Every structure is written in C-alpha cells, then in structure tokens.
Amino acid sequence: MRNILVDIKTNESKADFTSRRNLLKWGLVSLGTLALTTVPTIVTAQSRSRIKTLSFNANDIGILNFALLLEELEAAFYAGVVNSRKISNGKELEYMRALGAQEAAHVKFLREVLGRNALFKTSDLSFNSSGLAALMTDRNTILNTAIALEDVGVHAYNGAGTSLTNPTYLLAAGSIVSVEARHAAGVRALLGRSTTELDSERSVSDADLVASLNPVKGRAYDELYTPEQIIEIVGSLKILNNPIDGALVA
C-alpha cells in the first residue's frame, strides 16, 4: 500500500491551469448559489478524555455509515481549505467552497437516509488539527489531497456497492459516487493532470487488489477497494483521531 502523504508531495505540479477555458470546462465559473453555501466548521480535537470508537458491522447499516464517515472527512477538509487562505485564486477558492458544500450536502443526505441507524454524530468525530494543517500548507498540497480524498471515495463506493442489499442504500451510494469522480477530475484539471486516475497514481497496487472484486483493471475502470484498504489510506492522511473497528474493517 502506498503512502498517500508521500504521493501528495511528489505529485505536486507547478502548472497553473486556471485559464477561463479550464474554469468553464469544470464548472468553476458561474457556480451559482451552491458555491456560496456555508461549509461546515472543522471539528477540532475533542476536549473530553475519551474519543468515541467508530464501529462498523459488515452489513448495510455499517457500510452506509462508513460512507457517511468518508463524506464527513471530505466536508471537514474542504471547510479547512476555505478557512486556510492558502488558495489565492478567487475562482479556485470558489470551487473549493462549492466542493465543500456538496460534501456537506452528502453528509446531510446520508444522515437522512440512515435516520436512527446513523451510528455517530458529527460532534463525535475528533479531527487531528495538526494532521489537517499538514495537508493545507500550500495550493498544490491542498489540491493533491483533494484528489486523494475524492479518489478514495470513488473506490470505496464502488467496493461497497457489491455488498449492499438494501435498494434504498444502494441508490443513495450510487447517486454520490459519480459526483465524487467529477470532483476528482475537476481538481486534476486545475493541476494540469490527466482527468482520469493513472494506474501509477492508485494507492492500491494491482497485486493488492482483491481479484474477485476487480476482474478487469486499468484506466477504463475504477478499481474496487475493500473497507480495510480504505481505512489504511485514510489513516495515512492523519486526519481522524477516532479509533475504527468492527467486522466491516477487520
């Protein structure tokens, strides 16, 4: 498994593709009211001595709650980006704000779908402020981290889709995964990179992919990652303090 933090640093590009043509292509111009939607405030490290352990069972409820956690991480990251003032280009900042608003909308949507089956509250999450700060040192680090998080979301939703049996939950996941992919493509365009994930950029190598989940591989497909693989990737970013356990990630 590759270290995401190392990849974020080595993939930094000096290219600045914020031309009007690229902004128009990826919807950065005239984003409308969505771009102005307030993004959630970062939840800093909890003051209480005990941090909640997040447990996910290997069932539909566990899977959708796991998806909810990923959306919470993305929403918190983009909120931090907006507040960091490290993105100086106005249109790029507007885009980061729009992505954060959409991730916050995903959180709200999944919580509505789960209802009382939501296993944790946003206030239960303890974010590592120093870990988040390390991902927001400059524009390129921010954009590469955004790509990493969005790619993780795509691979996670695709991997979870094979196990979901509740059609409502499956529809909820399916309605989000394509948006995550568009987010990743749009941010890649800002860095002048290929808008599809290169095999060399994947966090999980071909050798570590579960064959039964990935009968075909390559740029024409989005590989399916297991929850265990997703947890390892997320852990390498050092964003979350909460311990994670349960049959889903065992």
How would you characterize the overall build of this protein?
The chain has 250 residues and is mostly helical. The chain has helices spanning 4-10, 20-25, 60-84, 90-114, 129-134, 139-161, 167-190, 227-237; strands spanning 54-55, 244-245. The protein is globular and about 45 Å long. The relative contact order is 0.20. Residues 12-47 have low confidence and may be disordered.
Feature tags:
250 residues, mainly alpha, two-stranded parallel ribbon, 8 helices, 51% helix
Q: What's the SSE blueprint?
A:
Layout: H1 4-10, H2 20-25, E1 54-55, H3 60-84, H4 90-114, H5 129-134, H6 139-161, H7 167-190, H8 227-237, E2 244-245
Parallel strand pairs: 1-2
The general outline is globular
CATH topology heading: Ferritin
- How many independent structural domains? 1
Structural class based on helices, strands and sheet pairing = mainly alpha
Please describe the biggest sheet, giving its number of strands, its sense, and whether it closes into a barrel. Answer: 2 strands, parallel
| Low-confidence regions | 12-47
Number of strands: 2
Report strand order across the widest sheet.
1-2
Task: State the CATH architecture.
Answer: Up-down Bundle
Radius of gyration: 17 Å
